[in-house]
Batch of 4 targets.
Target 1
Amino acid sequence: MPILYSLYFSPWSLKARWALDHHGIDYEQREYMPIIGEPFMRLRLRKFTGKITVPILFTDGEPLTDSFAIARYAEQHGSGPKLFLPGRGRDIETWNQRSETALEAGRLLSMAEVLEDPEAILETVPPPLNRLGAVGLTLGKSATRTFLAKYQINAAAKTSAMAEAREVFEALRDARQQATGDYIYDEFSYADICMVVATYLCAPPAKRYFPLGDAGRRRCIHPQLSEEFGDLIAWRDTILERHYPPKL
């Protein structure tokens, strides 16, 4: 059985799980623990330098180390309606890249202030470590500092991230205005999954779709974006209600 390592609060992990569930793939889900789990993961991947990120799906073949590759795997090995529509492969890849740009911007904007919020830090620590009080908080702070250094978060980066996010959402709005139905294309596709999840940067959806704690949700609300792109948030909620979790 495939094994998926993911983070419950990661939108990248959500994209992977959504595609796997949509196609009825039977898999074991394991929560990845940053810092603590990294040495084991490096050994398993035989990757001793560079960044380690999740989701990662271990199968009988080579491990799949990003959500797009995992979605492709689900398409090839699962059942149900196609997410990669015929003739739309390059277009969907473009939407995936736009999603990645928005999510990276959101990660930067949300994490920039986490060190100032102990409750938010603890929410990034997986159980049972998050119930260890000061020990869990220390682990969370260490992981957060490592993250901030890894992604070189500073004031200039935050300004750039906001501009990149706006460009992505303007492209989505243009596509929605040209569409004849509720989807980016004629039917539900991985393009919709990518952009639904990308809008989490504006404001997170209901907890039943994204089980983020209250402190984490506060860090994921960006009023400038949520006010400017409220129409996209409404679209997102319609798609989530219709397609997530998948009706198998």
Target 2
Amino acid sequence: MFTGIIEEIGKITTITDKNIIIDASEVLQDAKIGDSIAVNGVCLTVTNIENQSFSADISPETQKVTTFCKLKSGDRVNLERALPANGRFGGHIVTGHIDSIGEIKSISNAGNFYNIVLKLDKDNSKYVVKKGSITINGVSLTVADESMDTITVAVIPHTFQNTTFKYLKNGDKVNIETDIISKYVEKFLSTRDNRTGIDMEFLIKNGF
């Protein structure tokens, strides 16, 4: 599990459709093979550590549902180690499992913060609520506003300058993970996957 608090910006040295090698320093201080590191919000397993870089395998599913297919050598990526049992919970619950790819519509400097507007697909925009949490390229953010298929997030200068947000431009694609809690709530309340035995017939029979 992760929190969406980025520890450093890494640099891709090599990437194929099956493997990625990233230059890093902070996240490698206590890292070992088998550890989890979120790369632009994607949970990857460390397969090798050499000097100031680490390697990880990329699954076909990761290629399919994330922006990894668009990354290239030299690109910068957000990095975060998995949360230790005694770690401080600074962001929100982030699984590292990407739900969809969003598109940057605009980035504007509003003085003491930056407004970023993104377009989401309709299947995942239903999980987004105003003042709720969302993860964009691994960064835990609060939704400032939302409509049918777009959301606005307000990013403080520290976060903007210390993540890959400072490299983003209009039209760029980003990894989106919506709040896991909303998905559980949907499943519990779903009539399609209702295992409680409570249905319309039950409610009528009991006077509802």
Target 3
Amino acid sequence: MFTLTGHGNVIFSAEEAENLRNYMLGGGFLHIDDNYGMDKFIRPELKKIFPENELVELPFSHAIFHQI
């Protein structure tokens, strides 16, 4: 698992985006902590990793929030 935290702007190079894509498609997990306003910067960068997918908000009823 990788965790991404910080303040403000995040930029992935093409190589970093490809590496993250391969990591996540292989079962890896990326936790992004948006406590300091990274949301508007990270969304375009996530689009580099998965350009074919849209971001969706998971409801609290989703199984990922109820693991033991």
Target 4
Amino acid sequence: MIHGIDPKVDCVFKRILGNEENKNLLIHFLNAVLEPELRIRDVSIMDPYNEREFIGDKGSIVDVKAADEKGRKYQIEIQLSIHATLTSRMLYTWSSIYHSQIKAGKNYSELKPVISVWIVDGNLFPDTEACHTPFEIYDRSHNIILSDHLKIHVLQLPKWKQEKSAGSEMDRWIYLFREGQNIDTDNLPEILNTKEMRKVMNILQGFSENQKDYLLYQSSLEAMYERNTWVRDAEESRKREKQAEKKAALEEKRRKQAEKEKRQAEKEKKQVEKEKKQIEKEKKQVEKEKKLLEEKLRQMEALLQGKMTDISDDGVK
């Protein structure tokens, strides 16, 4: 291989899984990841690979959409940038496909399951070491599945560990998307030495050796870098806004706390002043009562003195 080709780049990814000529690879990929009870035998690709959609298009987000022989819908997408709204986007794109199946007034029985597979080149769920995380609508407390129409499978590429791999078909695909850019097609590792993986290697080699395809790859790669840079910048801007909002909220909380403490201090001051006035009032009352007592005492002493004088006068007589 002359150039290292990354299979995660849009145009390469879609030629591998979204090309009618390589439909067997899409079928193999879906069976490998989903492991359905009844294997998928055939699919129809809704938006087949077209190289013109990648030429000069800096803003497209490419996914693969297909339907199988039972009418079930599939969406496969590569995501290289992790951002806060990614899980919301997963639900939104799933719902868009599900909603598009019927028009207003149609019977809901016409709805078929929609299964999304997201290949994520990042750590979307830090709380788990699992590489493959399948999601569905499930009540864990009562062990009840609401519906089998919603399933979203997430493959976190950085969490795949080859030494723990059992060499399943899904492992091959994960290894391909993780390491494809660095693989020597003339000396394939054992995990990729299968019919399907060799066909993928031929696709990568075609992008490497065909000048037109390589220029298309370079254009798509640049668009991907620009898009991911924009996403990272937007995410950083969002984080800064969140931090500013958090700081402002903290300052507002401190201001309100300071105002509360000030009001409490003023209230306590007024209470102290009130108690001080009450003490002064009681003091005055005590002093008043003291004077009254003293006056009564003087009156009693005077009265007693008068009586003593009368007694003395009677004795003289």
